[in-house]
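Dear colleague,

Thank you for sharing your sequence with our group. We've completed the structure prediction you requested, and as agreed, I am returning the results in plain text so they can be pasted directly into your records. Please verify that the sequence below matches your submission; if there's any discrepancy, let me know and we will rerun it promptly.
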Amino acid sequence: MTSNQAIERDRGQSKSKIILAGGLIGAVTGIGIAYLLAQRAERQGGEMQLSSGEGLRLGLLVLGMLRQVADLATPDEDD
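Please find the predicted structure tokens below.
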């Protein structure tokens, strides 16, 4: 195995680890949010409901977060 092949293999493993970590973070975050919503519904003694305002706020927060994550993928023009 040449050193270039070893570097490419290491990059592939590193990329896989990053993707796996991101997936785990997303899954844990989603489960946590679902748990909090279920707890709120249980305290209120009814079904799990989101008002349209809460849904809109949550959607905008998710879009903002995705925008911030997308900005991580673009190189800085200052460098």
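Summary note from our side: The chain has one domain: 3-73.

Kind regards,
the structure core
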